[in-house]
Every structure is written in C-alpha cells, then in structure tokens.
Design brief:
By secondary structure, this protein is an all-alpha fold. Among the domains are: about 40 residues; about 35 residues, no CATH class. It has 4 helices and no strands. It starts with a helix and ends with a helix.
C-alpha cells in the first residue's frame, strides 16, 4: 500500500483494515439476527404444536397416576431402606466389603438385625 493510499484510508495496516471490516459487519449482522429471532417468536404457532384437548390427559390416566402415587407413598411409609455404603471405597486401602472373589461381604441379615 502506498503512503497516499494509506493516508486516504482510515486504517494503517492490513490487520487494522480487517478489524474495521469485521466490526462493521458485526454491527450489521447482530441486529439483523436479533430482529429475525424476535420476529420468529411473534409468529403464530403451527397446528401441530398447538395444545388441544386431544393431547390432554384423560380422567382415566389421571386416576391411574393418582393410584400409583398413593401406592408409592404406602411403600415409602412401610419400607425400611438400609444403605451399608459398601460401594464407598478409599483408594489405596484394602477393601473391607469385598471378598477375595470380588463379591460383597455385606450381609443383609446382619443389616436387618442392626
């Protein structure tokens, strides 16, 4: 680039020119993309996406869900859940819960007794 051309141009180096071009393009592209996104959000929903009575749960489905919830609550109230934390091992230490064969030494009977 000659000195005369550089004097007429607002940028002194090719990198500065590229940066300026990128800034101008960014200032134009970002508002256009935002406008397109906002306009697409204002468009009406298609028939396929609209919620209709056909996709709403039926009374039978709601009743079944209520029965399952009640059953789960009954099980939760009567179950005794024990966790021996046998799956927690300290790296570098010998396992206290796994036998030589790699199977668990945890005894559910002993856990029930306490």
């Amino acid at each position: 680039m000659t000195r005369a051309a550089a004097a007429d141009d607002s940028c002194n180096t090719e990198i500065e020119c590229l940066k300026n071009d990128l800034m101008i393009e960014t200032k134009i592209v970002i508002p256009l993309v935002l406008a397109a996104v906002m306009l697409s959000g204002c468009s009406p929903a298609s028939e396929d996406l609209a919620v209709t009575a056909d996709v709403m749960p039926t009374e039978a489905a709601l009743s079944d869900a209520r029965e399952q919830t009640a059953r789960a609550k009954r099980i939760h109230e009567t179950a005794l859940v024990l966790d021996a934390h046998a799956d927690i091992e300290i790296p570098g230490k010998a396992s206290r819960y796994a036998g030589v064969d790699g199977l668990s030494n945890v005894s559910p009977e002993k856990m029930k007794i306490g």
